[in-house]
Design goal:
The complex is a heterotrimer of chains A (379), B (265) and C (306).
Chain A lengths: L1 H8 L12 E10 L2 E11 L4 E5 L6 H9 L6 E6 L2 E2 L10 E4 L11 H11 L4 H14 L15 H13 L5 E5 L7 H18 L2 E6 L2 H7 L2 E6 L2 E6 L1 H6 L4 H6 L4 E10 L4 E5 L4 E5 L10 E6 L5 E3 L9 E11 L3 E8 L4 E7 L14 E5 L6 E3 L2
Parallel strand pairs in A: 3-8, 3-9, 6-7, 7-8
Antiparallel strand pairs in A: 1-2, 1-4, 4-5, 9-10, 11-12, 11-14, 12-13, 14-20, 15-19, 16-17, 16-19, 17-18
Chain B lengths: L6 H25 L15 H8 L1 H34 L6 H13 L2 H19 L7 H26 L2 H9 L4 H30 L2 H6 L7 H9 L5 H28 L1
Helix pairs in contact in B: 1-11, 2-11, 3-6, 3-8, 3-10, 4-6, 6-8, 7-8
Chain C lengths: L1 H6 L7 H27 L14 E3 L5 E3 L4 H8 L1 H34 L2 H16 L2 H12 L4 H8 L13 H26 L3 H8 L4 H29 L3 H6 L7 H10 L4 H26 L10
Antiparallel strand pairs in C: 1-2
Helix pairs in contact in C: 2-13, 3-13, 4-8, 4-10, 5-8, 6-8, 8-10, 9-10, 10-13, 12-13
Classes of the chains: A alpha+beta (379), B mainly alpha (265), C mainly alpha (306).
Chain lengths: 379, 265, 306
């Protein structure tokens, strides 16, 4: 419980005095003239659970493989705990990796798999046995030590792979799509287990994933990657609520975007007139956009409210007609067509049963939102 | 879902397997014929097997063949494995395409050409550097190694292509040096391929007549060479007995290998 | 010195040696020998051992003279026997390949469609003869086809014929021998491709109204074509240079080029002529070998079929 508490308070990236544990300085990687990773600078702190999120081919796996030592950067430096490891081979780094395919050695038992890394360090036999036992207990696989990998289920293999990479107590653990091979139900359950284990062992984790939900639930911070570049590095909450660019806003969750003209900029708010939205936005934060410039204003579907009656506000409100409703059980997604022809998505929890739903097809409705829930996107 | 085989397919398959096995069957049956007339059955006898065991030329050539096959298969496995690793794991190096062609070419090259060219090489080398001195078991071994390594490369290469690269990376990641990765991870995983490559090479070497005839020297006649010189002029029941022994050895070997593989699965 | 060694990567664990050792071996024992064959094919015939004149000679003035001698080639060109031997080889190899395809394709197709447990056994039965002695399998046919052989004995005893049929020592027996010995080489690559085909495709074709024969021609045949090409070349190329089969089953009238080279070499001891004959055969085979190489990536696995 104590650890949980600490985790919530732990935000070393906000403290300028904390030294980063893992540091990448201007790292680039070129394959046959193509930049897979483009000038990435990134600091990760001790005991963080950091996720690299992005579509396939965005360079996240290459970045991970450079940290592991399987690829050498074309440019830049990699520091782990203050030591430059850029040119060190994989077998000489305090880093371990959990592979997407798990890469369990098929000709060894679970115990032999886990002991493999310790044997390379020439640790005494009795200590190896102890540590293997300990880590098997940690991943709740004590009973399966003498099994062969092909006798295990997907979830069990995943645990063995985790145990094998943890047992060396690396300074940094890399996870390459650790849950991708599991089915959906097991994946959700494993997400929390993985976070719990990470908190218990206190090792810094860097995970690569293309699944935004996974990145959001598990990480302390995440980095969104696109075409080899890191687009935003922030906590899951910040990335979702305050995406710094259209790319990030689109990549994480769904979002409605409206083009508009900046009419007034103040310290704590900004006014944007949008013909597309048929509304004037009063955005509850400032942005670096001069009066008269074109910007995009974005609002998440669940941050919009929908009603037959006009709300008591002049700004942050627009009108439209319900064209379609998607029923997902817990929520419904309303497709509302505005005067400009733009379709806006609005998510509402289903507070009442389907038959009693107040808003239905072809209804004329008002859409409105709170000032602090809209975001001005300048990039 | 399995489709039922059509009558046509069934007929062809029965005919095909009969075609493959009836000639072998006749060899076996008539090896137990007591008559010297191989085609007329006169009664059961094992006299040809006894005669076989007393044929010193044959036994000596068998020893030579086994010696050549053992060393050629072993060398071929080493060289073929190195070649397969180069082709599968080293990405695109300079000359890879050429190397790839060179590794499989001995397999399809007509044996007469391979044999002739190797003999001319050995003769030429002896003229220039005095090595290899004369021809015999040693030159046959070199020639067979070259032939067999093509087959080994193909077998091992298939296995390596199937092997997940991340297994090697995982071993490196866990602190194993490249040599250790090879001995502790790659070697055990591709071992079945090495074994079948070795057996294949052994069988090929034991079987080869043409190349061995070109590069053999006096007193180094291999088993196929001795068999060939005796069957050139017709059939003898003694050779039938020998064929039966060879075929049953191979059949038993293959069955044991099949059983072992089945058990491992 | 050390730096040169380092440049050459004289470190036995480095990838350089992993490639260099087998590469060097193949250069020395496979490529260079061909160059020597080529060289000797341009040499003069000479008595003695080796029975050819050196191609390069240092004159007394210290000049290096390279004599290219086309006599061997013109000799081959003037004697129609050699031309017929080449034509015979190509024809017999082609007939053998077609025969292998006709028997091998339905067999491979049948094996691919059999249930997995049967498949293993059927496949093993195809591979098994391949492991037994090639020579003895050819030898078995002498006993079957010869005038006193099983077939003739049987037919005479049945009273169907009075004098033995001449089944051996002809082209027919040679082609039969080639089909028999090379059949596994055809079936294995064919099987490798036929086994990969998703047979739901056939059902889809039936569903769309194709008759079984049409479905086969339109779906299975095109998908298995790489296997057909690989298998055919794997039979054709070595068959062209075959020696044992024409020697034992073809008799004196079947003059395949492998046999001719053998005789030139061992009987006539005309090494330069044998070398020139080999060079010409290789020229014939370069195209098929090049095509085969293009398919080698795909058929890399067929030998491992267990």
């Amino acid at each position: 419980m104590k650890q949980k508490q600490r985790r919530i308070n732990l935000q070393p990236w906000q403290d300028s005095k904390t030294k980063p544990y893992i540091h990448l300085e201007g790292v680039s990687k070129e394959f046959n003239g193509v930049l897979a990773v483009d000038d990435v600078t990134l600091s990760i702190f001790q005991e963080e659970f950091f996720s690299l999120l992005g579509p396939s081919g965005c360079g996240k796996t290459t970045l991970l493989r450079m940290l592991a030592g399987f690829e050498m950067p074309t440019k830049g430096k990699i520091y782990i705990d203050g030591v430059d490891v850029t040119r060190r081979p994989a077998y000489d780094r305090p880093v371990n990796m959990m592979f997407q395919s798990y890469a369990l050695f098929p000709h060894m038992t679970v115990e032999q798999n886990i002991a493999f890394g310790l044997k390379q360090e020439r640790i005494p036999k009795t200590e190896i046995q102890e540590r293997v036992k300990e880590v098997l207990k940690l991943v709740q696989m004590e009973k399966y030590g003498s099994r062969a990998p092909h006798q295990l289920s997907g979830g069990q293999r995943q645990r063995v792979a985790l145990a094998r990479s943890l047992v060396k107590r690396p300074k940094l653990l890399l996870l390459d799509e650790p849950l991708a091979a599991l089915d959906k139900r097991l994946r959700e359950q494993t997400q929390f287990e993985l976070v719990n284990i990470q908190e218990k062992v206190g090792i810094t984790f860097i995970m690569v994933t293309h699944d935004q939900e996974e990145a959001m639930t598990m990480s302390t911070r995440l980095g969104v990657m696109d075409h080899g570049r890191l687009r935003q590095i922030a906590t899951p909450n910040e990335v979702y609520e305050y995406p710094n660019s259209e790319y990030v806003a689109d990549f994480i969750g769904s979002i409605n975007k409206f083009e508009g003209l900046v009419t007034k900029v103040e310290d704590n708010h900004i006014l944007v007139d949008s013909e597309e939205a048929g509304s004037e936005f009063y955005v509850g934060h400032s942005a670096e956009a001069p009066v008269g410039s074109h910007v995009k204003v974005a609002i998440r579907p669940e941050k919009m409210m929908i009603d037959h009656a006009a709300p008591n506000q002049k700004k942050n409100v627009t009108k439209g007609i319900v064209r379609d409703i998607g029923y997902l059980g817990d929520v419904s997604i309303y497709h509302v067509e505005l005067k400009s022809g733009k379709i806006v998505l609005v998510t509402q929890p289903n507070l009442v049963r389907l038959a009693e739903r107040p808003v239905t097809w072809d209804d004329s409705v008002y859409l409105f939102w709170r000032a602090e829930n809209s975001i001005v996107l300048t990039a | 879902m399995q489709n039922k085989l059509s009558p046509f397919l069934k007929t062809v398959m029965i005919f095909g397997y009969a075609f493959l096995y009836l000639p072998i069957l006749t060899l076996i049956i008539f090896s137990f014929n007591s008559s010297r007339q191989v085609t007329v059955w006169q009664g059961f006898s094992t006299r040809w097997y006894t005669a076989l065991l007393q044929d010193e030329t044959l036994l000596k050539s068998l020893l030579i063949s086994l010696q050549v096959a053992t060393s050629a298969a072993t060398l071929a496995v080493i060289l073929g494995t190195l070649a397969a690793i180069s082709l599968v794991r080293f990405g695109r190096f300079k000359g890879r395409g050429f190397f790839g062609i060179l590794t499989t070419a001995p397999m399809i090259m007509p044996e007469v050409i391979t044999g002739l060219s190797l003999l001319l090489l050995f003769v030429g080398l002896e003229q220039i550097i005095g090595w290899p001195h004369g021809r015999g078991i040693f030159t046959i071994t070199l020639a067979h190694t070259t032939l067999c390594m093509a087959y080994v490369t193909i077998v091992v290469r298939g296995r390596l292509v199937d092997m997940d690269v991340s297994l090697e990376e995982a071993a490196l990641d866990l602190g194993a040096r490249p040599i250790k990765v090879f001995t502790a991870i790659i070697l055990p995983i591709i071992f079945p391929a090495l074994l079948s490559g070795w057996l294949l090479a052994f069988a090929l070497s034991l079987d080869d007549l043409v190349i061995a005839s070109f590069v053999a020297g006096p007193g180094s006649s291999t088993l196929p060479m001795v068999i060939f010189s005796s069957i050139r002029f017709g059939i003898t029941p003694q050779i039938n007995a020998l064929a039966t022994l060879i075929i049953s050895t191979v059949a038993i070997g293959v069955m044991i290998a099949g059983w072992l593989m089945h058990r491992n699965k | 010195m050390k730096s040169i060694l380092r440049k050459l990567k004289l470190n036995f664990s480095s990838p350089f040696w992993v490639t260099a050792i087998p590469f060097g071996w193949l250069l020395l024992f496979f490529l260079i020998p061909f160059l020597i064959v080529l060289k000797i094919s341009f040499s003069d015939l000479r008595f003695g051992l080796p029975p050819y004149a050196p191609l390069m000679e240092w004159t007394s003035e210290g000049l290096l003279i390279i004599k290219i001698n086309l006599t061997n080639y013109t000799f081959i060109g003037t004697d129609s026997l050699y031309l017929f031997a080449y034509l015979d080889s190509l024809t017999i190899a082609l007939l053998g390949t077609i025969g292998c395809l006709c028997i091998g394709y339905p067999m491979a197709y049948g094996i691919a469609k059999a249930s997995p447990s049967k498949r293993t056994i059927l496949l093993m039965l195809v591979i098994l003869p391949f492991w037994t002695s090639f020579l003895l399998r050819v030898y078995a046919w002498i006993g079957i086809l010869s005038p006193q052989g099983y077939i003739n004995t049987l037919l005479i005893n049945l009273g169907l014929i009075s004098t033995p049929l001449s089944l051996i020592d002809n082209t027919f027996a040679t082609v039969l021998g080639i089909i028999y010995c090379y059949l596994p080489f055809m079936i294995l690559p064919l099987y490798a491709f036929l086994e990969k085909i998703d047979y739901a495709l056939l059902e889809a074709a039936y569903d769309l109204g194709a008759r079984p024969f049409q479905a086969f021609i339109r779906i299975i045949w095109p998908l298995s074509r790489p296997g057909v090409i690989a298998g055919s070349l794997l039979v054709f190329i070595p068959a062209v240079g075959e020696f044992v089969i024409p020697e034992l089953l073809g008799g004196s009238q079947t003059l395949m080029i492998g046999k001719v080279i053998w005789n030139e070499f061992f009987t006539n001891r005309t090494w330069p002529v044998a070398a020139a004959l080999a060079v010409i055969m290789l020229v014939f085979l370069i195209l098929p070998i090049a095509i085969f190489q293009r398919y080698q990536e795909q058929q890399v696995r067929f030998l491992d079929a267990e």
